[in-house]
Amino acid sequence: MPISFAKIAKESTYSRQGLAELWGYASFHAIARGVVTPRDDNKIVLFVTEEKQSSAEQYVDRLTGGKLEWEGPTDHFAEDRMLNAASSGDEIHLFHRERHHMEFTYCGRLTVANHLRRTDRPSHFTFKLD
User: Fold this and answer.
1) Is 13-129 CATH 2.30.280?
2) First to last CA, the chain
3) For the chain, what are the domain ranges?
4) Would the pTM of this model clear 0.90, i.e. be above it?
5) Which pLDDT tens digit goes with each residue over 116-126?
6) In angstroms, what CA-CA distances link 125 with 2, 10, 34, 106?
7) Does the pLDDT at position 1 exceed 80?
C-alpha cells in the first residue's frame, strides 16, 4: 500500500499509531520497525530513537544539525535499497525522537552521504537531510 507524505509536515510530531491511521494501516504494528518499506511503494521510512529502552538493541544513532549518523539493523534490512535510492528513485524519509516513548518528529527526506557495510555487526550510514 503506497503511503503519502502530503499531510505530513516537517518539524511536526507524530505517534506511530497516528501515522498508521493516516496511512490506512489497521494498527501501528505495520510500522513498528526502525526501517519500514511499504509494499509496492518507493519509500523507505526510518524511525530513529536516540535513547532507547534498556531492553532494546542499543544502536548508536545521532542526529546533529542536518546529518544523521545511523547504525542499520543487525539483519541489514533494506541496506541495498538505501544505497541505491538515488539511482532507483526510492525516497528515504526520517522520523526522529530523542527518547523512547516520545512522539517522532518528521525531519524530511534523507540522502546517503557515506556508509560502511559490515556483515558481522550493524553497518554504519551517514545521511544528510535534503
Assistant:
1) yes
2) 25
3) 13-129
4) yes
5) 999 999 999 99
6) 25, 22, 14, 19
7) no
